Amino acid sequence: MKAAVTIALVPDIKTGPWIYWHDLETSMAKAASLGFDAVELFTASPDAVAPDRLTALGDQFGIKIAAVGTGAGKVLHGLTLTDPDAHVRSKAVAFIADMISFGAGFGAPAIIGSMQGNAVPGVEREQALAWLADGLNILGKQAHEQGVTLIYEPLNRYETNLINRLEDGVTLLKSLETQGVKLLADLFHMNIEETSLADSIRSAGSSIGHVHFADSNRRPVGFGHTTMREVATALQAIPYEGYISAEAFPWPDPDQAAQQTITAFKQYFG
Predict the structure, then answer these.
(1) How far is CA 206 from the centre of its chain?
(2) pTM here?
(3) Phi/psi at 42 (nearest 5 deg)?
(4) Number of separate domains in the chain
(5) Domain range spanning residue 68?
(6) Alpha-carbon distances of 178 from 86, 102, 150, rounded to whole Å
(7) Which residues, given as ranges, of the chain have pLDDT below 50?
């Protein structure tokens, strides 16, 4: 398994669970100096960072791109895959498709979290799930054709009324026409929704394509009450070989949060 840390470059989501902010070069340098293998990027758009610059920084610091987030599509533009308006759904697919292409240039998957949306009043949940599946089928196929995986993230009940548990995510993936979609096991969301994090991970098995590393309170691992040894044992048992990426609050500050994260990663996976 490989360690990654989040960098957000979108001022509108500054209060979110991201370790580093704003300065891409400085953040990548700090991540590399601590021993992280990669960074996970949250940008405002697919063209927010020039690919040549990102390649140069990666080469300079010896660090990869673990994944790219798509959340700006919802935060900045109000786009989701389950909007009742077909035109909005189409724009959401187009935005994510562009993010897939951006990430694919670095061998990195795109993550669909908040852009999945909700079953809003007046829309049956089954209809919303059908729209979600339609989007995932289109985008999963595109990701596969570009040599990457599309990552779908079950969120807790306070953020979506669609898919909240890994088990339901596996069911959704099995219903798709594409095999280009994997699940994101976010330990914070799982702490809210799963009876046992370890059992859920074992059950989902090879359906897991990415892991978000955060404690029960969304602070860096070690600052909450998650029983991380059981989680680590389950991930090793599946076996999971991808990125363990810190999507956590920069508490008490970004540098200490990053240090705590890499220390915890080495403790459980080193």
Answers:
(1) 16
(2) 0.97
(3) -120, 110
(4) 1
(5) 2-269
(6) 21, 20, 10
(7) none
